[in-house]
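Two proteins, back to back. First:
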Amino acid sequence: MVKQQVTTKKTFVESLLDSVSMILLIMMFVYIFLKWPVLPNSIPMSFDPSGAVSQWGDKKSILGLPLIGLLAFGVFSLVERYPDSINLRIYKSEDKDKEVTYNRLMVNIIKTGIVICLLLANWRIMEAVL
C-alpha cells in the first residue's frame, strides 16, 4: 500500500530548519575536506567520561558522522513527505491539515537536532586532532 503524499505546504519554520540542516551538513563536509591534508592517520573515535580518547580509527572514519547525518536528513525528509506514516499524536485536532503540519514540524525539529548533535560530535573529534 502506497501512502498518499500530503499537499499542505511547508511552513516557514520547516523551510528554515531544512536550510539550517543542509548548511550545517555542507559545512561539515567542507571543513573536513579543507582540513584533510593536515589530519593525522589516526583519528579519535570515542571518548570516555573524563574526555580521554578511548578508541582510535582510520583517517577516513572522520567521514562517518557527516555521512550518518546526510542519511538521517534524507530519511527524515522522506518521512516528512508522507506524514500519514508519522505515528506521533502530539497534537490532535479535527483539522487534519493542522495535525499533519504539527507532526511534520516535530519530525523536522528532530531531524535538525540530529544534524546539530552530529556536527558537534564531529567538531569535538576534529578539535581533539588538530
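And the second protein:
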Amino acid sequence: MSIFDFFVGIQGSFIASLLLFPILILSWVLSRQLLEKRKRKSYMFLSKITLGYLAFNGIILIFSLVATTVGIESHAISSFFNIIVKSTFIIFLYGFYRIHNKENFKLQLIFIVPTIVVILTGLFAPILGHIIAILSIVTMMILYGDKLGRGKSIYMASGLFLASLLLSIAISIVPSLHGSFYMLNIIFEVSSFTFLLVNLIEHSLIIMQSSYVSAITDSLTGLFNRRYFTKYINGCVDRSIPVNVIFCDIDNFKRLNDTKGHKVGDEVLKQVATIFKEEVQGIGVAGRYGGEEMVLLIQSLDVDMEEITERMRSRIEKETITTASIGYRMYDPSVPADLLIKQADEAMYEAKAAGKNRVMSYRLKAANILDVAANE
C-alpha cells in the first residue's frame, strides 16, 4: 500500500479534517476576540460560520475515524463531505466581505444562493456542483476581490481553492487517479483555509495597531498625546539619553477661534503639527501637550537648536495664517524630564512676553516668567 493511498476516500477525509481542525479553531478564536473587542455584527457572522464549520469538521473527523477503524469505505459519503467543504468556502468569502464592508442584503444573496446551489447540485451531480463553485468564486473575486481584505492572502486562498476544485473534478471523472492527486487536493484545500486564517491574523494585527496608535496619538493633529509624550521623555531621561525640549504655543489662538471659527482653528493646528512632524523626522518626536500647545523632543545633540527652532517659527509664519512663540531647553543630565518640559514652557512664556512670534532659550533668570500674562 502506497503512502498516497491514505489520502483516498474516507481516510483522505479524516486527514483533511484533522489538518483543518487547528486552523478552524484559531480562526474561531480570532473572530471571537474581534467580536468582543469591536462589538460588530460582522464579526459575529464570521464567528458563527467558523464555529458551524468547525462543528461539521468535527463530525467528519469522528465519522472518518470510526469508518477507517472498522473498515467502512463509501464513495458517496466522501463525496458528500467534499461538496459541503467546497461550498463552505463561498460562505467564508462573504464572512470576510462583511468584516471590511457594510451589510448588504443583495450581496448576501449573491454569496449564499450559489452556496445552496452548489450543495444541492453537488449531492446528485458532484462535477456540476464543483463547476458551479468554480464559476461562483471566480465571479466573486472579479467583482469583489478588492473588498474581501487587504493584501494578497485572499487571492492566494481563492486560487488554491480553485485548484482544489479542479482536482476534485478530475477525481470525480477518473476515480482511479493516482493517490498523489488526492493528496494535492487535500493540500490545496487546507492551504486555502490557512491563507484565510493569515488574512484574519493580518486584519487582527491592523486592528491592534490602530487601537494602539489611537491610544498614544492625538486624533486631530496625529502628534503623540501628552500622556505618551511624557512617558517617552521620562524613558529617555531615565536611560540617560540626551534630549532637548522645545515648547510651542500658537499666538492669539483664542482670538483666531473666535473670529474665524473652530474649523479654521483646527486646520491651523493640523498645519503647525505637520510642520513639526517634518522638522523632527529622524531626529526626535512631537506631541500635542494641550489646546494650542505643542512640545517636541530632539534626540540628537548635533542639531543646532537655535537654527531648528527659528526655522520652525519662520515656517509657521509663512505657511499658515498665524504665528507661534517657541521656547526650548537644552539637555542637562541633572534635570528630570518634567522639569525640562517646565523650563522649556517658561522659555516659551518669555518669548510671548517679549512680543510673541519669536524664539527663546531657557535661562535661569527666567524662572519666574510664568507670572507674566500670556497677552492672548
